[in-house]
Structure formats: C-alpha cells, structure tokens
Design goal:
The structure is a single chain. By secondary structure, the chain is mainly alpha-helical. The protein has one domain (3-34, 43-92). It starts with a helix and ends in a 14-residue tail after the last helix. It has three helices and no strands. It is elongated. The chain has helices spanning 3-32, 44-67, 71-89. The chain is 71% helix and 0% strand. Keywords: Membrane, Transmembrane, Transmembrane helix.
Length: 103
C-alpha cells in the first residue's frame, strides 16, 4: 500500500470519527434540550443507542486511525459510521438541532 493511499485512508477515518463523535454529542444535546415536563425516561434510549454506536463503531475506528493499522478495514468501517450517522443526523443537521417543535 502506498504512502499516499495510507494518508488518504487515515484522513477519511479521522473525518468519519469526527462525524460519528458529533452525532453522539448532538444526540445527547438534543435530549438535554428537551423541557423537563416532556421527558418520560424513554428519551434516554436514544442516548444509550448513540453511546453503543460510539463505543462499538466510532471508538474502534478512531483507534485504527491513530495506530495506522488495518486501514482498509477502517475505511469500510468509516463508510458504515458515516452511513449510520447521516441516516439519522441529516434530517435535522445543523439548522434544527435544538428545534423541538417537530418532536
């Protein structure tokens, strides 16, 4: 594998890890922005799933990027991370992050 290809893969991995981290933080911020009177406890399911996403996909991806090993697998994992995050993140990114009128 050439040095340029490794560099491109590492940049893609770090970009996907940043997107995944933003998704995780934005999920927590959206739940915390809900008024206390509208909370019933079930909103924490989204935070738990986002945390599982972060620990199961994003954190291993970040570790692969930092270590510089298994970069092809990391690139595939990066596509999965971006796909999952964009499927749920895109409809309210970034202009309606705290717009709770649609909830």
């Amino acid at each position: 594998m050439t040095s340029d290809f490794r560099r491109i893969l590492r940049v893609a991995i770090f970009a996907a890890a940043a997107i995944g981290t933003f998704f995780w933080l934005a999920t927590a911020a959206r739940v915390m922005a809900m008024p206390i009177g509208r909370r019933d406890g079930f909103e924490m399911i989204g935070v738990m799933l986002a945390t599982a996403y972060f620990l199961g996909l994003v954190l291993p991806l970040l570790i692969l990027g930092i270590l510089g090993r298994w970069l092809v697998f990391g690139g595939i994992l990066a596509a999965l991370v971006v796909g999952v995050a964009s499927d749920t993140l895109w409809p309210w990114f970034p202009w309606t992050i705290f717009d709770l009128s649609r909830s």
